[in-house]
Amino acid sequence: MGVEIRVEGLTKSFGRQTIWQDVSLTLPAGEISVLLGPSGTGKSVFLKSLVGLLKPDRGHIWVGDRDLPRLPEAQLYDTRKLFGVLFQDGALFGSMNLYDNIAFPLREHTKKSEGEVKRIVMEKMEMVGLLGAEKKLPGEISGGMKKRAGLARALVLDPEILLVDEPDSGLDPVRTAYLNQLIVDLNSQINATFLIVTHDINTARTVPDNIGLLFRRELVMFGPREMLLSSEEPVVRQFLNARKVGPIGMSEEKDVSELEAEAKMGHDPGRLPPIPPQLMPSDGRVRPTQHAPGGWCAAHGVVPPPGSFIDDLGRNWVEEWPRYVAAMSPVGGGPAPGGFGQAGGGRPGAGAAP
């Protein structure tokens, strides 16, 4: 099971430039969280702070019962072994083949025999669909394969926390969809705590359990997926609708005169789109930490945008969910009649990725 991360009052500056301040959030153990925000808001800096590569100016990062910024170097080094990191460009060694790239953390941080190393590396390569590509160099493979190789390397030490920095960067929409499915499948298999930094709206709307948004050097919002996807916060609406109208400008934020001009013209960042069903694991099983569709909205008296939780076949998953869970549970004996559990068929979110 993954480890809970609690961030309290975190602030980071470079010289006189404040990147973000007083950031507080909790990444629930075993859940998938996504961090959104315009370019230049410090999302990658936040990831580097979480793993201890950058030290914040003030605040706490509790990984279990350890406060990362205050750990001695030896304990920090040991705590980092809880993390796996998929860097934006894969960060593979160009002179090493994929096998040696993936084996590198095991050879660097453990005393395992080459036989054990081979078993683990091949297991992780199979998990990400790279069996048969062991001898290829990074320069001989596609961007999507590089991402999967970087993901396999991040998994070899069996991390309890996985940080993923812009997995969609440089990928076409189809490869991004495949990678999203892989992330959901991995979370289902290893139950690690995931934090994904992304600009991809489809990823943010279909993959995570929780979403956060950084803007104007602050964390605007962080919480369950449905909370953000049903929010009337102007910056959230603008970002999710990918519109020019709203607080976000070309240089991150607009000045007062621009906002006043937009207000006079009566422009609106647009209504929020429907909340789609969440992407499910390929085998159709419900992840242990997954929440029922519409559960947060119902518990907080929020009416979601019209058309929410309805899949490509027109089924409302707020209504279908209890029957689906019963059909897919071990007690239920596996898939029930009516298409549940069939590949690409009855799963909520099945149409979100090929």
TrEMBL record:
<dbReference type="InterPro" id="IPR003439">
    <property type="entry name" value="ABC_transporter-like_ATP-bd"/>
</dbReference>
<dbReference type="InterPro" id="IPR027417">
    <property type="entry name" value="P-loop_NTPase"/>
</dbReference>
<dbReference type="Pfam" id="PF00005">
    <property type="entry name" value="ABC_tran"/>
</dbReference>
<keyword id="KW-0813">Transport</keyword>
<feature type="domain" description="ABC transporter">
    <location>
        <begin position="5"/>
        <end position="241"/>
    </location>
</feature>
<feature type="region of interest" description="Disordered">
    <location>
        <begin position="334"/>
        <end position="354"/>
    </location>
</feature>
<keyword id="KW-0067">ATP-binding</keyword>
<dbReference type="InterPro" id="IPR003593">
    <property type="entry name" value="AAA+_ATPase"/>
</dbReference>
<protein>
    <recommendedName>
        <fullName>ABC transporter domain-containing protein</fullName>
    </recommendedName>
</protein>
<keyword id="KW-0547">Nucleotide-binding</keyword>
<dbReference type="InterPro" id="IPR017871">
    <property type="entry name" value="ABC_transporter-like_CS"/>
</dbReference>
